[in-house]
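Sample pair:
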Amino acid sequence: YQRRVREAVVSTQSTGDAMDRSIRWLDRCQTAHKREHDQNLFGIIQGGLNPTWRKECLEKMIERNCPGYAIGGLSGGEEKADFWKTVSLCTDHLPPNKPRYLMGVGYQVELVVCSALGCDMYDCVFPTRTARFGSALVRTGQLQLKNTQFVADTQPIDKDCTCMTCKEYTRAYLHCLLQEDTTGVILLTIHNIAFQLRLMNDIREAIREDRFPDFIKEYFTLMFPKKNYPEWAVDALASVNVTLP
């Protein structure tokens, strides 16, 4: 499956055609754009996993002087080694004084690593979708609150979280709701979005305080206490001079 995905986003001419179409579409959007005072029009860097197409798209999009740039065409099943190298290629060439928005990326390991690679903004269905399956996001990974181990657990999802769900409800109560009531899904969604926002706020503060490499190491130590770090994440962080303990 992964090989077919990779071939689809690298080897087919349709990927190059789609890249050209994105550039033409940006030209049309800039011509039609009349609300520069309250809307920012980002160009989307396309080109699949093909470095030549990515560089061509980067050059042409940057020429159009957008207020920010999105990195598109990823998080679609490609191998993680290809994923991070493509992200890095884009951030290496994008203007450092303009925001970089990585589209469709939302797993917490990806947020930490791609922030280190130079991305600023993200969007993803992951925190809401995973809530629908009964999973709550925490710094050590996920809690599957539908499991029976939580039937009598009177703790909040995360004692350090200040969201409404963690302030008001226990894991046991959420476990009960998730068996038959969509209210449980709503409450988990509130928590998961709050979790993502708090993670990004912590990343931002660590960057401002010039301690982001230490934050990354602390995060990975908590997430992977056995030091079984994903190889792609190790390689990606090493490319920006962050060595995990």
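The radius of gyration is 20 Å.
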